[in-house]
Amino acid sequence: MSDASHPYFASPAAPARPRSLVTHGLAFAWGLAEATFFFIVPDVLLTRVALRDFRASVIASLWAVAGTLVGGTALWFAARHDATQFLLNAFDWIPGISRELIVRTAQSLNTHGLSALAAGAVSGQPYKLFAVHAGAQELPLLAFLAVSAAARFARFTLTSTVVWLAGRVLRRQSDAFRLNLHAYGWFVFYTAYFVLTR
Fold first, then answer.
1. Which residues of 151-179 are buried (b: 16+ CB within 10 A; e: fewer)?
2. Whole-number CA gyration radius for the chain
3. Average pLDDT for residues 35-64, to the nearest whole number?
4. Within a domain: residue 114?
5. For residue 3, is it within any domain?
6. Alpha-carbon gap, residue 4 to 105, rounded angstroms
7. SS3 for 171?
8. C-alpha–C-alpha distance, residues 148 and 155, integer Å
9. Which domain holds residue 47?
10. How confident is the model at residue 123, as a pLDDT?
11. Hey, how many other C-beta atoms are within 10 angstroms of the C-beta on 28?
12. Is residue 186 part of a domain?
């Protein structure tokens, strides 16, 4: 049997690439949106991908990081050009963001510098606030982006790994069960988050 006729090389596998391109585009767009105005983290998408393919979730995480950096750059420049107060007033209307959280993020960045981004990535402090405050406090853009990339990728990989491991534990369950459990888990998480931060 020739390689071309082997089942491994059969054409039904071809649609995987278009699906991956859609996932990459969605991850980039989600990272960009969450870095600027959206209030649901890209981890929701990335962990769902991780349930079926951990490697694909890592690649999608890189695209989400790229989107995040584009959004962070835009906010950093806007803050440097006197849009800080306008942006923070607008963010105050976003679910999960309060005036207290805005002030706390500014203080954290002022006290700890860019290392605050690492703690913020796992403590529920929105990235968009760090981006605006970094611009307002005139922190170097390239350093801000470098730390942002490392912190966000580490967080995305961490959440994807946890969900992938959970999926392995539940591998005897159906795909529908695991996907539904994933959706319920994020629903419970955000319900608790919005209650605690309002």
1. bbbebbbebbeebbebbeeeeeeeeeebe
2. 19
3. 96
4. yes
5. no
6. 57
7. coil
8. 11
9. 31-197
10. 85
11. 20
12. yes
The pLDDT of residue 13 is above 50: no
> pLDDT tens digits, residue range 96-124?
899 999 999 999 999 999 999 999 988 88
**In the Cβ-directed half-sphere of 85, how many Cα atoms lie within 13 Å?**
1
Convert the pLDDT of each residue in 123-153 to its tens digit: 889 999 999 999 999 999 999 999 999 999 9
In a domain, 190, yes or no: yes
- Domains identified in the chain, total number: 1
Q: Measured between alpha carbons, how far is residue 196 from residues 52, 94, 184 in Å?
A: 32, 14, 18
DSSP conformation class of 155 = H
The DSSP annotation for 65-112 comes to HHHHHHHHHHHHHHHHTT-HHHHHHHHTTSTT--HHHHHHHHHHHHHH
Give the contacts of 25 (CB within 8 A, at least 6 positions apart).
Answer: 63
Please state the rounded mean pLDDT for residues 15-40. 90
Computed from CA positions of residues 126, 72, 186, 150, in that sequence, does the dihedral angle turn out positive or negative? negative
pLDDT of residue 16: 58
